[in-house]
Write a structure and sequence with these properties.
Pfam families: Pantoate_ligase (PF02569). By secondary structure, the protein is α/β, with parallel strands linked by helices. It has 2 domains: 2-173, HUPs (Rossmann fold); 186-276, Pantoate--beta-alanine Ligase, Chain: A,domain 2, CATH 3.30.1300. 38% of the residues lie in helices and 21% in strands. It contains 10 helices and 9 strands. It has helices spanning 7-19, 35-47, 75-85, 95-98, 116-120, 124-139, 151-163, 193-198, 201-214, 220-232, and strands at 2-4, 24-29, 50-55, 89-91, 143-147, 169-173, 237-246, 259-268, 271-280. Strands 1-4-3-2-5-6 form a 6-stranded parallel sheet, with helices on both faces. Helix 2 (35-47) links the parallel strand 2 and strand 3 (50-55). Helix 6 packs across helix 7 (151-163) and helix 9 (201-214) runs antiparallel to helix 10 (220-232). The protein binds adenosine monophosphate.
């Protein structure tokens, strides 16, 4: 497995692979890899000749008071995990390599970024779209793999790829969970023992909401209230949002019909966790 720190190295390798007619799968990450990331790498390996994983804690997607400095990092472990899972190249640039002085271009996806996480993190998706566009130009993949764990991000990237005519297939992959249902996340490392136990409330509440929808409920307010009430019973939990939207447009829906995203963001202590389910109702 190749470890590349510069854009030039990545481009040279990609060109060589392209000359050999190899297809390229790409998995962008912020590192501190776990089974969730691994599932994307495995899927990419199945569907492409070569797999590139980027490990880059992207400063432009963090707000000024967010956890950029403390975000967990373990590049040695990430390297091992990528190698084990069959990645062919890790791109591990520093911030200077990705953002040169004077860089002035921004990318804004209108509409889809106003609600859910975009509401509480107004600069977040601009940073995500900028870094993902740059990485797409550097890696030139045939397919790129994103987790449904970040469902709004997946919807935003799909929209951006359409709007900017990237010739890349975006593949959404299911959420990988701990045995007790908590969605795997690098940020779970912030939780102490009590908080870790409390964090299971997100999936518990969503599971109940899903059962209610599967039983035929189409009333948005009723399902939102049910999920909210369950989360509120957990003293360590503070809700950022409980939302039910159209998965493709992230627009509010009048009733639970079509391709629906039910998403929550909840602070457990100081740690903000997200979870969701997507349902064809
Ligand atoms: P991150 O390193 O958190 O930026 O995540 C990199 C990619 O891994 C994103 O596409 C995430 O949606 C995906 N991902 C993170 N956690 C999970 C999970 N538990 N299951 C599936 N995909 C995940």
């Amino acid at each position: 497995m190749i470890i590349a720190n510069t854009i030039k190295e990545v481009r040279l390798q990609i060109k060589a692979w392209m000359k050999e007619g190899k297809s390229i799968g790409f998995v962008p990450t912020m590192g501190f890899l776990h089974e969730g990331h691994q599932s994307l790498i495995e899927r990419a390996k199945k569907e492409n000749d070569k797999v590139v994983v980027s490990v880059f804690v992207n400063p432009t997607q963090f707000g000024p008071t967010e956890d950029l400095e403390s975000y967990p990092r373990d590049f040695e472990k990430d390297t091992m995990l990528c190698e084990m899972t069959g990645a062919d190249l890790i791109f591990h640039p520093d911030a200077k390599e990705m953002y040169e002085k004077g860089a002035s271009t921004l990318i804004h996806v209108e509409g889809l970024t106003n609600a859910l996480c975009g509401k509480s993190r107004p600069t977040h998706f601009g940073g995500v779209c900028l870094v993902v566009s740059k990485l797409f130009h550097i890696v030139s993949p045939d397919r790129a793999y994103f987790g449904e764990k970040d469902a709004q991000q997946l919807a935003v990237i799909k929209r951006m790829v359409k709007d900017l005519n990237f010739d890349i297939e975006i593949v959404g992959c299911p959420i990988i969970r701990e045995v007790d249902g908590l969605a795997k996340s690098s940020r779970n490392a912030y939780l102490n023992t009590q908080e870790r136990a409390a964090a299971t409330i997100l999936n518990k509440a969503l599971t109940k909401g899903k059962e209610t929808i599967l039983a035929g409920e189409t009333n948005v307010v009723k399902v939102k209230n049910e999920i909210t009430e369950i989360i509120c019973k957990e003293p360590l939990a503070k809700i950022d949002y409980v939302e039910i939207v159209d998965f493709d447009t992230i627009a509010p829906v009048k009733s639970i019909k079509g391709n629906i995203l039910v998403a929550v963001a909840v602070f457990i202590g100081k740690t903000r966790l997200i979870d969701n389910f997507i349902i064809q109702a």
